[in-house]
Specification:
10 helices
Length: 176
């Protein structure tokens, strides 16, 4: 019985440690994304990295980081719908991964979708009520909406007394 248990544990360990090859493609894609600062070469690098992320996802369809980096490339190349699809897929694979929501909110904000960004940040906050990045980003967005005082009150709650650099600058601006 002990021998059978030992073999079972070793088998589980081997399966868990097995490298499916997706990381090789992922790492190659990351390297290609940041190889050049020249804009023409950067676009070519993005396309090559895109192919690497596709291969990593083909090998491992649950590779959230590959989806997120592919989403980044899609956004950079102007494919916003593709960006949204990859973010959605990443959030379906890891619904508790707040980084997906933070990134999505930041892109929505830069594209002018303020309400969409705030909704996504609220989702991140609902997952982790102590997520200072989400509160900080929300404060920045709300300060742009001239809602500083109202947001200051929502940012500092008894359950979340976090003072961030952003928060301190808001206090100074509003005189709170």
């Amino acid at each position: 019985m002990k021998k059978l248990l030992f073999i079972f544990v070793i088998a589980i360990f081997v399966v868990a440690c097995k490298d499916d090859g997706s990381k090789v493609y992922f790492d190659a894609g990351i390297k290609k994304m940041y190889e050049s600062t020249d804009s023409a070469q950067r676009i070519a690098n993005y396309k090559n990295a895109f192919a690497d992320f596709n291969k990593a996802i083909e090998i491992n369809p649950n590779y959230v980081d590959a989806y997120m980096n592919r989403a980044n490339i899609k956004n950079e190349l102007g494919d916003y719908q593709g960006f949204l699809q990859d973010c959605k897929k990443a959030s379906e694979i890891e619904p508790e991964n707040t980084n997906v929501y933070i990134y999505l909110a930041r892109i929505k904000k830069t594209r002018g979708d303020i309400n969409g960004a705030l909704a996504v940040l609220q989702k991140a906050i609902s997952i982790d009520a102590k997520l200072s990045k989400a509160f900080s980003d929300r404060a920045e967005i709300k300060s742009g909406q001239k809602n500083i005082k109202m947001h200051w009150r929502t940012m500092i709650r008894p359950s979340n007394l976090l003072l961030t650099k952003n928060c301190l600058s808001i206090c100074t601006v509003t005189g709170v």
